[in-house]
Design goal:
This protein is mainly α. It is built from 8 helices and 2 strands; from the N terminus they run H-H-H-E-H-H-H-H-H-E. It has a two-stranded parallel sheet with strand order 1-2.
Length: about 240
């Protein structure tokens, strides 16, 4: 892959979106995403990093662009989920819970919009989500789904890390997965307060490391929440 050239336009697009929330600009600055975007994204992507969308299916593409589209698809799903959670709070939600879930929503929207702006015309279309299996009026149903999405997100980034060729893309993925892991721990603590479940053995292996899951398995895990058929067959595997 060529060394990416500086292109400030993705950053400008992200900043335009960030004014929609008072907290978003600070989050971007603190996470270091604007710096990474300005230095890296897609001005000089390899010509083999392609994606070919269709009317009935979404092809994530190949190479690093394919991996970024894979992350973008997952961020779309999470952003849509938390947007609905905040818009229609479950019965008995506390102020503290609503504040936390709103902050997570804002983070996921930032992640989604960041990938969309950075990928530009290489981005996959907006996905059509299907949350019919989730009872948004029920706390256990909502937090159970949130736990699934957050755990899956962490495992997805961990599994995709070794497939990323560009070192700065890998740095960005590391910054985002650390935020997703914080979300996962917070959701688990809501479900089981004052317990060790925030780092349970269902997500941490015997070496004390978060588990990593390959893209094909992640796409299968979230298949029921997306109406589109997502094709990840062109993603790198090693």
């Amino acid at each position: 892959m060529e060394t990416p050239r500086f292109d400030s336009s993705p950053v400008a697009r992200v900043k335009d979106e960030s004014v929609k929330s008072v907290d978003r600009r600070n989050f971007l600055r603190n996470a270091g995403l604007t710096t990474v975007a300005g230095a890296v994204f897609l001005a000089g992507c390899d010509k083999d990093d392609t994606m070919t969308p269709s009317a009935t299916a979404v092809d994530l593409g190949s190479g690093d662009v394919g991996i970024l589209n894979y992350a973008y698809a997952l961020e779309q799903l999470e952003a849509a989920f938390y947007t609905q959670v905040v818009a229609s709070p479950y019965s008995g939600i506390t102020d503290a819970e609503k504040t936390l879930l709103t902050e997570i929503r804002d983070h996921e929207i930032i992640h989604r919009d960041f990938f969309k702006a950075a990928l530009a015309d290489k981005a996959i279309p907006n996905l059509e989500v299907d949350f019919s299996s989730i009872d948004f009026s029920n706390r256990a149903s909502v937090l159970g789904a949130a736990k699934l999405f957050e755990d899956t997100g962490v495992q997805a980034y961990n599994g995709a890390g070794k497939l990323i060729q560009n070192a700065t893309y890998l740095l960005l993925a590391g910054k985002i997965v650390s935020v997703e892991a914080r979300h996962a721990a917070a959701i688990r603590d809501l479900l089981s307060p004052n317990s060790a479940s925030f780092a349970g053995d269902d997500i941490i292996d015997n070496n004390g490391l978060d588990k990593a899951v390959k893209p094909a398995d992640i796409l299968m895990a979230v298949k029921g929440f997306v109406k589109n058929s997502i094709n990840g067959s062109n993603l790198p595997t090693a």
